Amino acid sequence: MDLKAYIRDVPGFPIEGVIFRDITPLLRSPAAFTHALDALEAYCRPKQPDVIVAIEARGYILAAPLALRLGAAFVPARKPGKLPWKTIREEYQLEYGVAALEMHEDAIAPGQRVVIVDDVIATGGTLNATRRLVERLGGTVVGMACLVELTFLNGRSALEGAELFSVLTY
Amino acid sequence: MDLKAYIRDVPGFPIEGVIFRDITPLLRSPAAFTHALDALEAYCRPKQPDVIVAIEARGYILAAPLALRLGAAFVPARKPGKLPWKTIREEYQLEYGVAALEMHEDAIAPGQRVVIVDDVIATGGTLNATRRLVERLGGTVVGMACLVELTFLNGRSALEGAELFSVLTY
Q1: How far is CA B116 from the centre of its chain?
Q2: Alpha-helical segments (H) within B4-123
C-alpha cells in the first residue's frame, strides 16, 4: 500500500517556503490508517513496552490505538497547564522562543519500558523533551516512533543515539 | 468493571471550586480503556457511522481506536490555525470570551453518517459547534458520545435534541 498517496502536501503552511505534510487524508481512510498502525505495531511489539507515551495532540491519534493493540498503558505528554494533577516539565527550543511539555508524576513507574510516539518528527525537540520526562520518572525509553520523518531537518541526529522508527520519510 | 475507580478527582483544577475528573488513570489501564471503548462501540455500531469526528485534543484518544474498530473515517475538529488546508470554522461561548473549532472542507462528504466524540461533556458548547461544522459540510449527525458527562452543567439540554451517550455520569 502506497501510504504517501494519503499524505497531502500543503505548500506555504504554517509559513511561506514550507511544505506541510497533511496526514488527515490518511486518517480518513480506515485501510491506510490500519496499514500505518500495522507498521508501528511491528516496530513496537518486539520491544515489549509497558507504556506508550503520546505527544499532544496528533501523537494521540496514533498512540491510543497502538497502546490498545499492545496492551500497554497510554500516557499523554501535554502542553503546559493541561494536566490537572502533580506534574513535571521539560522545556525545548523553538525557532523563536521556548515551549514545554508536562507529564503526571505517576504516569510511569520506575523500570517501565516506554516507546514515545508522535505523528511527525521535525527537529526532534519535542521527542527529546519527552524522553527527558520519561527518564526523570525512572522509565527506560526502548524506542521512538513516528508516522512521518522530515529527514532534511536532521531530527534523528538530535536524538542522541535513541532509536527512531518512521513509517514514511521525506 | 467499575470504571469510576479509574477516574481521579482533582479538586481546585482548573480553578477553585471545581472538581476535575482526571481520566489519565483510566488510559493507563489497558483493561479499563478497552472496557470504555467497548461501551462506546456498542453505542456507535448500530448507528453505522461513516465518520467519527474527534474533538481536539483528548477526544482523539477515544475516537481514533473507536474509528478503527468501526471501519470509519477519523476526522479531527481542531483549534483555530492547526489544520493546514481549506477550513470552515464555528465559534462557541466560553464563560469569558469565545473559542472556535475548525474542520477541513473535504473532511466529510454530503450524506455521510457522523458520530461526534469527546472525552467530557460540560456545557455542550464544543459538541454543538462541532455539530454545526458537520452539518455545514452536508454530514448527518447520527449520535454524540463521550466518556464523562458532568450532568450538573446541563450540557445535554444544550444539544437541541441531538442524541448523547455517556459512559460515566457525575
Answers
A1: 5
A2: 24-28, 30-44, 59-70
CA distances B49 to A4, B65, B112, B115, Å, are 26, 14, 8, 6
Say whether B23 sits in a helix, a strand or coil: coil
- Please say if B58 is a catalytic residue: yes
pLDDT in tens, A67-87: 999 999 999 999 999 999 999
Considering only CB atoms, B74 lies closest to which of A22, A33, A83, namely A33
How is residue B111 written as a grid cell?
Answer: 450524506
Q: Which of A13, A37, A60 has the CB atom closest to B61's CB atom?
A: A60
Q: Which residues pair with B91 in a beta bridge?
A: B100
Measure the CA–CA gap between B150 and A52, rounded to whole angstroms: 29
How far apart CA A150 and CA A34 sit, in angstroms, is: 22
User: Does the global pTM surpass 0.90?
Assistant: yes
* CATH number for region A48-169: 3.40.50.2020
- For the question of an ipTM over 0.90, the answer is yes
**DSSP secondary structure code for residue B122 in this structure:** S
Identify the closest residue of chain B to A106 by CA–CA distance.
B25
Domain ranges of chain A: 48-169
d(CA B103, CA B107): 7
